[in-house]
Amino acid sequence: MARILAIDLGTKRTGIAVTDPLQLTANPLETIETAQLIPFLKAYFAKEEVETLVLGLPIRLNGQDNEMTPKVRSLKLELERIFPEKKIELIDERFTSKMAMQSMIAMGSKKKDRKEKAGNLDKVSAAIILQSYLERK
């Protein structure tokens, strides 16, 4: 069975998470520079089979788009063009950063470590987006 990969797009950094091959668990994979997303995906797809890409769609609490929403929608179109064989889905990502921070606190991460390792927050957020997708499936 192929993996599912989630993307938490940011202006500078992007969090990536993937499932195990049986699509049972969501695991943080990597935080990369946003500008390197497409080359990263091409390299990853060359070594791992991925059937679905899940993009976190940032929406305000009132349901309106925020400043990142058009960028995510644009990325979806670009990914559909570059990887037409992949299924690409959008999923509401409200509260994922807050949930990721709470998860890191629960795992014993100190405040200093959370600030220094902001990249961890991005990939944990991607894992939460992916877990949410798996639960809805």
TrEMBL record:
<protein>
    <recommendedName>
        <fullName>Putative pre-16S rRNA nuclease</fullName>
        <ecNumber>3.1.-.-</ecNumber>
    </recommendedName>
</protein>
<feature type="domain" description="YqgF/RNase H-like">
    <location>
        <begin position="2"/>
        <end position="100"/>
    </location>
</feature>
<dbReference type="InterPro" id="IPR012337">
    <property type="entry name" value="RNaseH-like_sf"/>
</dbReference>
<dbReference type="InterPro" id="IPR006641">
    <property type="entry name" value="YqgF/RNaseH-like_dom"/>
</dbReference>
<dbReference type="Pfam" id="PF03652">
    <property type="entry name" value="RuvX"/>
</dbReference>
<keyword id="KW-0690">Ribosome biogenesis</keyword>
<comment type="similarity">
    <text>Belongs to the YqgF HJR family.</text>
</comment>
<keyword id="KW-0378">Hydrolase</keyword>
<dbReference type="InterPro" id="IPR037027">
    <property type="entry name" value="YqgF/RNaseH-like_dom_sf"/>
</dbReference>
<dbReference type="InterPro" id="IPR005227">
    <property type="entry name" value="YqgF"/>
</dbReference>
<comment type="function">
    <text>Could be a nuclease involved in processing of the 5'-end of pre-16S rRNA.</text>
</comment>
<keyword id="KW-0540">Nuclease</keyword>
<keyword id="KW-0963">Cytoplasm</keyword>
